[in-house]
Design a protein that fits this description.
CATH superfamily of the largest domain: Bacterial extracellular solute-binding protein, family 7
Radius of gyration: 27 Å
Helix content: 40-55%
Strand content: 5-15%
Distance between the termini: 99 Å
CATH topology of the largest domain: D-Maltodextrin-Binding Protein, domain 2
Oligomer: single chain
Shape: globular
Number of strands: 11
Largest sheet: 6 strands, mixed
């Protein structure tokens, strides 16, 4: 059968339509007429990363907060990026998370920086320190007062970078088997307490014991420790400390705003695309905001249950005890500054920020809350 002759005009028309279709396809895939988009296969390439934590599995606020970061990274990347979370002890022990990420056994960790005090004495300034700043003050220093730059410099020494990723707020003073009436009651006291607060306790004649969360309750029940701090009513209720100790003290000077952080392997992080870096930073920033809200929403009701349903005795540290805390903290800070040039710089910057930011807190939040509660009968 003879071939049908096709005119030159029709050939040109067909060629033009094909070219137009190609341009439309390129633009729909994020490209431009002069720069075609990457292939769908390249854009959709999936990656799985590991995050280790210092928290018990699915623990409220802390463990679930870390999982929230992992889930949001996956969500913001449309499933292209997944983060497999390992609770304390699942991949590495709780206190080995820092080294696991430094050695790239995992890419990320979720913890409080004061756990790494043995790496550098200035580590706790980026988590919580005795007599330090409350959550909103601490965030102001990190974000706008040069804190992040000092933090970056410190973590760079270990091949890491870190981001704020939550805050559990002002901590309770802790659970005690006996009443605390004076500084003398700390002499010989064995207490689970981390960071620089541990050194303050030691100076007061006590013995600080380092324990991850999952080991605290057995130690309290067995008498291996006489007291413990943890977080606040919501988390403390979940740990059932009220079954072992009845005296619940406040306010906690040791952690006025306990910041949680997501640390990453710096070489790994800088190898990522700018968009993937932004996804991680955004997931951490959102967690920083939402975690504090969650603790504020749930601590009050949990405290009421502890007192009304479990017979917990709420006690307040008296002024003499608090003065002893402050004296011990001052001595510890003097020692910290001798550790390194960076530790001295960090302490100086922290104290400056605490004074400047704290003066505004003292004029705004503190007197308002005091007057509001007085006038409305809130206790």
């Amino acid at each position: 059968m003879p071939l049908k002759k096709i005119s030159r005009r029709k050939i040109l028309q067909a060629t033009g339509l094909a070219a137009a279709a190609g341009l439309i396809s390129a633009c729909n895939n994020g490209g431009s007429p002069d720069k075609p988009a990457e292939s769908t296969k390249t854009i959709k390439k999936k990656r799985e990363w590991k995050m280790v934590t210092t928290w018990p599995k699915n623990f409220p606020g802390l463990g679930t907060g870390a999982q929230r970061i992992a889930d949001n990274i996956t969500s913001m990347s449309d499933g292209r990026l997944t983060v497999k979370l390992f609770a304390a002890g699942e991949l590495v022990p709780a206190f080995e998370c820092f080294d696991a990420v430094r050695e790239n056994k995992a890419q990320m960790f979720h913890a409080s920086p004061y756990y790494w005090i043995n790496k550098n004495k200035s580590m706790p300034f980026f988590g919580a320190v005795p007599g330090g700043m409350i959550a909103q003050e601490h965030n102001a220093w990190i974000n706008y007062g040069g804190g992040q730059e000092l933090w970056d410099k410190l973590y760079s020494e270990f091949g890491l970078k870190s981001f704020m990723a939550g805050n559990s707020g002002t901590q309770m003073g802790g659970w005690f088997l006996k009443k605390i009436n004076s500084e003398n009651d700390f002499k010989g006291l064995k207490m689970r307490i981390p960071g620089l607060a541990a050194e303050v306790l030691n100076r007061m004649g006590g013995t600080a014991v380092a324990l991850p969360g999952g080991e605290i309750m057995p130690a309290l029940q067995s008498g291996a420790i006489d007291a413990t701090e943890w977080v606040g009513p919501w988390n403390d209720e979940a740990m059932k400390f009220h079954e072992a100790a009845k005296y619940y003290y406040y306010p906690g000077m040791h952690e006025p705003g306990s910041m949680l952080a997501c640390g990453v392997n710096k070489s790994w992080f800088t190898s990522l695309s700018k968009s993937d870096q932004t996804i991680i930073k955004t997931a951490c920033a959102w967690a920083d905001e939402i975690t504090m809200s969650e603790y504020n929403a749930k601590n009050g009701a949990a405290l009421a249950r502890l007192i009304n349903d479990h017979g917990v005795k709420l006690e307040k540290f008296n002024d003499k005890v608090y003065d002893a805390f402050a004296k011990g903290a001052s001595e510890v800070y003097d020692e910290v500054q001798q550790h390194s040039e960076l530790a001295a710089r960090t302490h100086k910057a922290f104290v400056k920020a605490r004074k400047e930011i704290g003066s505004w807190t003292n004029l705004s939040d503190s007197p308002y809350i005091s007057q509001r509660n007085r006038a409305l009968g809130i206790s």
